[in-house]
Amino acid sequence: MKKPTDIGTNRTGIKASPLDSKKTLEGARDSKLVDPGDAGMLADERMEWSQTADPVGTMPPPGTFKGTVKTVAGKLKGNEPNVFVDKLGERLAFERTGVRLYEALLCKLAAANVHEGGPTREEIEHIRDEELQHFKILKESIESLGGDPTTMTPCADITAVASSGILKVLSDPRSTLTQCLEAILIAELTDNDAWVMLTNLADGLGKADLAERFRQAMSEEEEHLMLVRTWVSAGVNGQAGIVPTPPQPQATH
Fold this sequence. Notes:
This protein has a domain at 63-239: Up-down Bundle (Ferritin). 68% of the residues lie in helices and 0% in strands. The protein has helices spanning 18-30, 40-52, 65-76, 81-111, 121-144, 154-162, 164-171, 177-204, 208-240.
């Protein structure tokens, strides 16, 4: 099997065919089909659509009497509880996807030649199990507010679209373990910031019990990020032939 860094038949670059590339450049310069303007009409059209289009989705009405009471009570205080529930739904969808990402990563691991410092099966399974536990925390949090955890909230919908490329990388049989880890790194960076925001929202809305649970999840997500960063670095350095530098002993006084 070839490696992505092996020399192959990649002819996507313009230098692969100097004669044809010269004709392409000349054709682009001489073309009368493209308006040489500043794309102002396109920007105006996008702006108009953005001002008049309906949102991607809306929040459902509270599914329980408890949820109705909490929503009304929050609005009386000047808060918007639906913003919190929307972000809870977003994280719940993301954590569910996270479990699937790490399940797919286990398949990549089984097929890979792992470089020194790369992940072990036990480490990946540990992260997967914590992602599942975070999903359960979010499900319980939504239910405690009288919401329905099976609802696709607007933010959950947007996040699913934004992260669909990560899923495609993990499910592509041609992608390598390192490439998949780099894709998961994108997810973990997003996940870490999102947990910080969710914890701050819980604190701001006076949900101290939820905020405490979120802080524990946030701490575990920070560990996930650190591990994935380490694995990516080990994979890239290993492919480049860079020998890991052994840790230096600490000076004693």
